[in-house]
Structures
1.
Amino acid sequence: MIGALFFIDLDNFQALNDTLGHGVGDLLLQIVGSRFSGSVRKVDTVSRFGGDEFVVILDNLHIDRLEEEELAKAISNKILASFTLSFKLANHEHYITPSIGVTLFGEDVANADGVLKRADLAMYQAKSSGKNMVRFLILKCKRSLLLGLRWRKTYVRRFKIMSSYFTINLKLI
C-alpha cells in the first residue's frame, strides 16, 4: 500500500453560512483547515476540495496494510477529537462536526477518480450513519487471477452504477 485518502464534509455547514453569513463561514473553513493540519503528520497533505469539503492524503506510508489501516484510524480519530472544541468565530462560539470517509490506495493510484469516489462513498456512509463519524471503505482482494477478475467485474459494475450518482470536479487554485 502507498497511502490513505480522507474525504471530509462538515455537517450542517450550510446552516451556519445561512445564519451567520459567508464571512463567518469562510473564517470557520480557515480554522478547520488549521485543525486538520494539526491532526496529521507534516508530510501529509490537507486541501480544501470545495465548499465545505476537504481532502487529506496520507502518502508514502510504506508499511503493511494492517499498520496503514491503524494509522489511518488513529489520524481520523485525532481529527474527530479536534472538533470537540468549539470554534471562536468573531463574536460567536460554534460547534460543528465532520463526516469522514477513508479509503486506502496503492497500485490503483493511477485511477485517482476511483480512489476519490471510494473515499466519497465512505463519507456518505458516515453521514447516513448519523454524521460526526468515520467510515472506511477498504477493498480487500486476493492477488490470484481468478479472484482478481471476479473482483474487477464486481468493482466495475458497482462503480458504473455509483458513477451515475457522483460527479467529481477538481478545481486548481
2.
Amino acid sequence: MTKTTPRANVPGLLPSLLLFGFLLTPLISAAQSVRVPEGTDIKLEAISFFNPELYRPGSTYDFRVERDVVIDGKVVIARGTVVPALVRRLEDPDFIGEPGFVELTFKSVKAVDRQWIPLRNAIFKIEGKSRKKTSLLLSLLSDLFFFLKGEPAYIEPGTQIIIATEDTVMIKID
C-alpha cells in the first residue's frame, strides 16, 4: 500500500486569497491623511460671559470652534471643539477714562483624530469702553472728573475671533 500525502489545492487557494485581500483593502485604507497647512484660519466664538473680576493672569477662558474646518472635503477640526485661551494679562480701568483690557493667547486646538494642532502665538487684546474724551471734557468743569475711569474689558458670549495654525500637520481621517 502506498501512502499518499494530501496536497493543498493550490489553484483554488490563490483566488481565495485574492478575494480575501480585495475585501480587506477598503478596511485597511479607510483612514486617510489630510494635510492641514500652516496658516489655516479657525473661527472661534466665546462660550460664556467674561467678567474680569473672576479671572486672573494664568487662568483659562474657553472659546469653541464656530464651524467645521474642512480641507479637501474632509472635516479636520469639528465645530464645537473647545479651545482654551490663556489669560496673559489683565488690567483694570484707570483714571482719565482709560479702559481696562485683557490679553488672551491660544496654544493649540484638537483635531478630529485627537491630535493637538499648534496655533500661532498671537496675542488678542480686548478693551473695555474708553471714557477718555468724557473725562477730559468734564474736567474743565471740575478736577474730580479726572478720576472718571473707563470700563472693564468684558467679553460677551458669541464674541468671534480668528486664529491660525502655526505648523503644517497631517491629520488622519476615518
